Amino acid sequence: MADGLNEARALRITEIMTEFQSFQRRIAEYAPNPSPEEYFEEGYEVLRQCRAEAQAVLVVPYPAELSQVPSGSGDAEKRQLQRIILDASARRFQSKKIYLRAVAAIRWSNARNTIRQGGKPLQQQTVLLQQANTNLRTELAAITDARIYNEFRQTDSQAGYWLQDDPSLTTILNWIRSQAS
């Protein structure tokens, strides 16, 4: 029996997809342009990887069973909307993780540029450049699935969004794995 919440589910999909699109746009803005000597530096590799991963999230096909209009019942529509919420939540989750990694790499790049002051690295800057690399690795290690999920739950709750059908972290991760295979 339909529960009368399908409009809330449809609105939730819009909220999730709006944030997904925002992350994708911001990631696309990060276009590293390192010198040939710096091309393989850790932070620039992370940025290139982030751009490739963001593209990969965009090209994952929408599950065919979700594109069919449910026939008749409100229950069929409810199930379809719940599956769309799961798909949208997984894409938003992946995009946020990529975005956070890209931001860390941009901070790394900015730190390197500040240390180098626009020139080639000097011997006395080696320790500072190594510290920038360490900071990048530390920041990347702090980007965990649980952190991302909890941030979403907190910000969505504070925004007053309807979260009743939002999937758990385990469900999101399982969905991502299933789509990758």
Report on this model:
By secondary structure, the chain is mostly helical. Helices cover 70% and strands 0% of the residues.
Map the helices and strands.
Blueprint: H1 6-29, H2 42-59, H3 74-116, H4 126-141, H5 145-158, H6 169-180
Quote the average pLDDT: 91
Structural class: mainly alpha
Could you tell me how far the N terminus lies from the C terminus, measured between alpha carbons in angstroms?
A: 34 Å
* Helical amount: over 70%
Order of helices and strands: HHHHHH
Low-confidence stretches: none
Strand percentage: under 5%
Count of helical segments?
6
Gyration radius from CA atoms, angstroms: 20 Å
Bulk shape: elongated
Main beta-sheet annotation: none
| Beta strands, count | 0
What's this, in brief?
With 181 residues, this protein is an all-alpha fold. Helix content is 70%, strand content 0%.
